[in-house]
Amino acid sequence: MTYSQRDKQYNWHPYTQHKTAADFPAIVKGKGALLWDENGKEYIDAIASWWVNPFGHSNTFIADAIYQQLTTLEHVLFGGFTHDKAVLLAEKLMQLLPSNQKKLFYSDNGSTAVEVAIKAALQFNYNQGIKKTKIIAFEDAFHGDTFGAMASSGISFFTEAFKGSLLEVARIPVPTAGNEAKSKAALLELVKTNEYAAFLFEPLVLGAAGMVMYPPEELDELIAICNNHNVLTIADEVMTGFGKTGKTFAVDYLQNQPDMMCLSKALTGGTIPMAITTFTQSIFDGFFDDDTNKALFHGHTFTANPTGCAAALASISLLETSEMQQNIKEINESHKAFEAKIKSHPKVKTTRVLGVIFALEIKTDSEESYYGTMRNKLYNFFIQHGIILRPVGNIVYILPPYVISKEELQKVYETIVDAIEMI
Ligand SMILES: *Cc1c(COP(=O)(O)O)cnc(C)c1O
């Protein structure tokens, strides 16, 4: 039996209805933007394996840093100890983050990075004797699958079964074209109640919603509203961080900086699971007290894992090379050229581009559900043609590794055109 067939005996996959799912390809090798399955079939990874892998698969520069670290100090507990790589990574990130970010808290994945930010926002208020127990988030937001992160996510089928067990979250419309005033008015109404500790958002691009984009000027105004009403702001940069939007962070497009940021996914170049929540000095100071009970009582066993920190340091040094910055620019230009060609296609409803992210909405007669028929047909078509793309309903998006070649990217575009014509 193949690995693909043997897989089903024990493995339970994410977001999968196993009764109706086909056998999954078993990937055994990766290099650059390419993956190969056990039968030798080649795939272009046009979504950087869920947005984690900007520098390509099996990157030897990051792998060498990991090997060095594994054979020097693989892990040490971060409670009561520190280590060189956590210090170096913190110092490095401080050069890249918005200037108001002064403290880092390490965890393991995007959801926990968000969880830490939410808990910090709630306890920041609690420590001062202020009762603010609710959160504000966007409609259609995605912040992860642990309880706090899930509660903040607005895509209903992810959370439907858990209603009643969740943190209270109020939703405002995303300020896309035509919805700017509604979004601001909804936020203003909520912040005036003095019940909300924080506004949590994906800056400029809502990834899981289908790469829904909105302008920085609008986010600046939303942050200003929060600032004026003592509501903390949390930028979830788990997807957008480390160059995806054309700048290091999406908040680099803003005038107003958030109070907290959540980082993960590309942080380690898609190698070791790791995440970081970052804070302003004033939030940190809200926990800084002679009273032990005012400390942030949160931690994970693998917090600030040295191997993860070494991978992150290597990844950031790759991101900073002029070659990688040039790749990001070229992918953006290439996306724009493709957009100009495809947007007048009779089956295309809308297109959008930011940084290395391209998205296109296919015209449909009815509302397409997240994992609906059209989505599955498109997904299977792409897989058959050796392209890994995971459409969201009728939205097809590309978020390639920065090292994808021109030819590979052209093949992705051509296959998308074929798919639109097939559908
Ligand atoms: C993927 C994602 C998360 C969750 O990260 P995990 O590592 O899957 O827990 C949170 N926020 C955003 C914006 C994401 O894209």
Description of the molecule:
This protein is α/β, with parallel strands linked by helices. It folds into two domains: 157 residues, Aspartate Aminotransferase, domain 1 (Alpha-Beta Complex), CATH 3.90.1150.10; 257 residues, Aspartate Aminotransferase, domain 2 (3-Layer(aba) Sandwich), CATH 3.40.640. The strands form four sheets. It has a seven-stranded mixed beta sheet with strand order 4-12-11-10-7-5-6, with helices on both faces. A four-stranded mixed beta sheet has the order 1-2-3-15. The longest helix is centred in the C-terminal third of the chain and has 21 residues. The site of pyridoxal-5'-phosphate has 14 residues, from helix 5.
Topology at a glance:
Blueprint: H1 3-10, E1 27-31, E2 34-37, E3 42-45, H2 48-51, H3 60-70, H4 84-96, E4 101-107, H5 110-127, E5 134-138, H6 147-152, H7 156-159, E6 169-172, H8 180-191, E7 196-201, E8 205-206, E9 212-213, H9 216-228, E10 232-236, E11 260-263, E12 275-280, H10 281-285, H11 306-319, H12 322-342, E13 348-354, E14 357-362, H13 373-384, E15 387-388, E16 395-398, H14 406-422
Parallel strand pairs: 3-15, 5-6, 5-7, 7-10, 10-11
Antiparallel strand pairs: 1-2, 2-3, 4-12, 8-9, 11-12, 13-14, 14-16
This protein binds pyridoxal-5'-phosphate.
Pyridoxal-5'-phosphate (PLP) is lined by residues 109-111, 114, 142-144, 202, 207-208, 236, 238-239, 264.
Catalytic activity: (8S)-8-amino-7-oxononanoate + S-adenosyl-L-methionine = S-adenosyl-4-methylsulfanyl-2-oxobutanoate + (7R,8S)-7,8-diammoniononanoate
Main location: cytoplasm
GO biological process, one term: biotin biosynthetic process
